[in-house]
Model the fold of this input.
Amino acid sequence: MPRFYIPPERWNPDRLVLDEEESRHAVNVLRLKPGERVTVFNGRGSAASAEIASAGKRAVDLKLLEMR
Done:
């Protein structure tokens, strides 16, 4: 399962969003699409399983499935 970093200051389990650089990697390099699952982490011990809700070039919105 692909893993993506969300900086601690942007970590919000109620609205998980990948920044532009991570979104570009997810969409253009890995070719991920809505409905696919990913893992996100903040580098401070928090991680979550999520599903891609929408995927754009500048942002990927995620739906939280499970906090770890």
About this structure: The helical segments are 20-29.
